[in-house]
Amino acid sequence: MKSNRLAASLGAAFVLTASVSTAALAQAPVCSAPVKVLAQPRDGLTLLEDSKDEFKKLSGASFQIDYLNENDRRAKSRADASTVGNYNVYYVDEANVALFASSGWIAPLTDYYPAEYDFADFDPGRQKVATYDGKVWFAPLTGGGDLMVYRKDVLEAAGIQPPKTLDELIADVPKLTNADKGVYGIALRGARGSGANVWRWMPFFKAYGGKWFDGDKPAFNSDAAVKATETYLKLFKDSAPGTQTGSWDESTGAFLSGQVAILVESTPLSGMAVDPKTSQVVGEVGFLPPPSPLPGGGYGHGLAIGTKANADDAAKKCAGLFIAWATSKENEKRRLDAHQFGELNRTSVLSSKEFADIYGADLGKALADTGKVTAVNFWQDPRWPDLGDRWGIILEELVTGTRTDIKGGLNELEAYANELVKKK
Amino acid sequence: MRRRSSLPVTFLVPTLAILLVLSMVPTLYAIVIALQNRELSTTGYSWVWFSNFADLFLDRRFLNAVWVSVKWEVVTVVATMVVAIGLGVLMFEVAGPRLRNFYCLLFIIPVLLPRVSAAFVWKFAYHPLYGIATYPYRLITGGLIFDPLSKPATALFAVASVDVWQWGLFFAVIVLKLLETLPPQPIEAARLDHAKRWQIHAYVTLPMLKAPLISLMFVKMIESLRSFDLIYVMTRGGPGVATETLDMYAFSQGFIESGKVSYASAMAVLMMIATVITFTMLWKRVQA
């Protein structure tokens, strides 16, 4: 009898201990230390910082985001990921995801992305950009293609219809420049970089039939590249001042302050152009897909799990939870409420009634139309940033007049590409 | 018999040991890396010995970077010394004690600004449409656009002017204070001999300040070698490669474009050797 009681007591104690342990396990925080994130400034991330407590409650730890501008973020994240690995989460983009993934600097995201956060809800185009070698590597924070954004009033005053073709664009841009009134036909990107001047040059290259490689043989040193560069330089004569050594900030800044008639830029510009907080030309802006045959430059930026700072699975799960939470439907809804157009990536949000109410039907139609001509224009390879940045320098030299021989520049790039191929 | 004190050894040995570790370890590591073919994106490497150095001399951007660095060094050092001596002498001659103090305070402010802040302030000042520094040009020409940072001919001078703005004004204060410490007798003797003001400074005061002025020049030469932050913020080495100095190009190769850390290290090693040789020669020439 006594032994039965003892056995029963022990059994009860075991059950109690087990259930307490299970409960403790169920409530065990996913994160044991603050999540360190290296990113570039984004309104969506700034907004996210207001909800730090929510993440702390969810995971047991807070997070810290260090911001650097795009080029510096790329340089710093590359240096950090390949050496010390200080950051749990890296902001990566379409241009460097192949490099980060193939170098083992980031982990496959979906292995650590909690299912309840519904990764499949992201826009399919952005999911495609986030995928390399059959695996998903980042959750999108922004992405899309290109839109032609134009000033209705300026075009109307000049008696010009919005250009539908590249030839019309080339013919119209000089007519729209009126430097005395501080209005320029177009704004392009002159600053070096695979994500800067090369990004805006690539649609011209593709429109003229250019391709980067034929197997392992560089194929870009072609008539298409020469013609694309000539067109780019010709259009640059009517590009707003400050853009010759500027990038996205300078060209969109010039448009939003009323200095530019036509701008073909990444889709987040359209949201900024209709927002009175950022635009001085609200009510005067029209949207169309890029003039044919210019393809839109498909892109996507997002958050990825660093491998060095997250040495074990638990740390990776914590980083995965942060990324899932940061890109969740709830947080995207907050970004929609804050009119952060460029920060929206989920199909459920983009197709919602609230979205249509805020941004109107015109923009929705233009976005749907431009989706059909959006393409991946860059070379999808880990060596792309290297090759793209090299062309960026040469292109900047051509734009600013430091060099004038387009063919010589392409020959130099081809020699460099051959070196890159040999090293593989 | 004099007893040898152990005090100098006690103080010197730990200090020198720390200095040796701090300076020699990274230097030796840079030399070792320069002889390999390390890249950020790969973990494997092999010894290539002097191949990186040989490649550098066939690299047009490296040769351009050498030339830009020499231009940068000459322009900033000469302009800083000219501004410093000119303004220092002017304050000494024209301003009374209270006004001198006011100018000194004013002229020290630029150098107190962090380089990156100064670079951003001037980058906006040089904006072709809104910049305060380009406003006079727009006013005179009736609204013509001048974008000094995107013109290869003017970009280097535009960035150098910020360097001179910071250091030239600060050195002017030092020159003024040096002039104030000079004994008045030689100056009075020159005045009695009817020497003009410029002659007094050209033949009396400045020769008397030769040693401190040379020291100032050396300080500026070393400081000018470390202008990476200023150039990086204002032009990133552009337009094209017009302001790409050696340190900019090394950083670009190591961390921005290709991740070729060995190639970048080879540049750093060459820079170190060139700097040591140049400075030693100049120092010996000045001492002679």
Summarize the structure.
By secondary structure, chain A is of the alpha/beta class. Chain A folds into two domains: 30-144 and 300-351, Periplasmic binding protein-like II (D-Maltodextrin-Binding Protein, domain 2); 146-297 and 370-423, Periplasmic binding protein-like II (D-Maltodextrin-Binding Protein, domain 2).
Give the SSE layout.
The complex is a heterodimer of chains A (424) and B (288).
Chain A (H helix, E strand, L loop, with lengths): L1 H26 L7 E5 L3 H6 L3 H8 L3 E5 L2 H13 L6 E5 L3 H6 L3 E2 L16 H6 L1 E2 L2 E2 L2 E6 L1 E6 H6 L8 H11 L7 E3 L10 H11 L5 E2 L2 E2 L4 H14 L11 H9 L3 E7 L1 H6 L11 E4 L7 E2 L1 E8 L6 H14 L2 H9 L9 H4 L2 H21 E2 L8 H17 L5 H18 L1
Parallel strand pairs in A: 1-2, 1-3, 9-12, 14-16
Antiparallel strand pairs in A: 3-15, 4-15, 5-6, 7-15, 8-12, 8-13, 10-11
Helix pairs in contact in A: 9-10, 17-18
Chain B lengths: L6 H28 L16 H6 L3 H35 L2 H16 L2 H11 L9 H6 L11 H30 L2 H9 L4 H12 L1 H15 L3 H7 L11 H11 L4 H27 L1
Helix pairs in contact in B: 1-13, 3-7, 3-10, 3-12, 4-7, 5-11, 7-10, 8-9, 12-13
Structure description:
The complex is a heterodimer of chains A (424) and B (288). With 424 residues, chain A is an alpha/beta fold. Chain A has 2 domains: 30-144 and 300-351, Periplasmic binding protein-like II (D-Maltodextrin-Binding Protein, domain 2, 3-Layer(aba) Sandwich); 146-297 and 370-423, D-Maltodextrin-Binding Protein, domain 2, CATH 3.40.190.10. In chain A, strands 1, 2, 3, 4, 7 and 15 form a 6-stranded mixed β-sheet that branches. In chain A, helix 9 packs across helix 10 and helix 17 (384-400) runs antiparallel to helix 18 (406-423). Chain A contains 18 helices and 16 strands. Chain B is globular, with a radius of gyration of 24 Å. The mean pLDDT of chain B is 93. Chain B has 13 helices and no strands. Chain B has one domain (50-287): MetI-like (MetI-like fold), CATH 1.10.3720.10. Chain B has helices at 7-34, 51-56, 60-94, 97-112, 115-125, 135-140, 152-181, 184-192, 197-208, 210-224, 228-234, 246-256, 261-287. The interface between A and B is medium-sized, with 36 and 26 residues.
